Amino acid sequence: MEDYIVKLVVLGVISWASTFMVIRRMFPKRSFGFCNRLVSTIHATLAVTLSSLTVEDWRCPVCPLASKSSPKQMQTLAVTLAYLIYDLICCLLEDKRVNLDNSIHHLVSIVGIGAGLFYEMCGSEMVASLWITEISSPFLHLRELLKELGYRDTDLNLTVDMLFAIIFTIARMICGPCLVYAMALGLQLVSAFWFFKIARMVKYKMTKRTKSKAVASSL
Fold this sequence. Notes:
The chain is an all-alpha fold. It is built from eight helices and no strands. It has helices at 3-26, 32-54, 71-94, 100-119, 123-134, 137-148, 155-180, 185-218. Helix 1 crosses helix 3 and helix 2 packs across helix 5.
């Protein structure tokens, strides 16, 4: 791994932690999770933007395949690796009990991106995977932010829930398989797992809303 990438990761961890502390000062009455999700939203937006900027030819976003990673791709992956390290620490500090699903997700991602940076190969495929995984993340975090802001079970919250489910499904279950042949079987398995959980969430939301309307109409 290049020395400048190691320095970028270290600087990145410090930068994400500093961003969190600034947000905590700006919103002292909000929860730890609320502030962390704002940082996560910033990262997701930045990751998608940086990933898009690394694409050399939009007719084939993952080309060239199995090639040496470009400096832009390495830097993009380093920014996300730094964020994942920061976020894993935050999750361990926030949760009284270790969330096994979340911890495994972070550790697998850290090891995977770390290996990509170490070997400096398959940058196109890894950045494409990053784009696919993060494109729906702003809506994932927004739905939780709205709940803390008092918009739980509102039309706005439901709209964000549906947008998240739709974008996740398109990115992970349609775009994801197109990437499987290159290197992303692991991504597809993880995507299928989270798709199942999101489908359950959508079913719950729609059932709850239908019952609420039925009760209201009977009064």
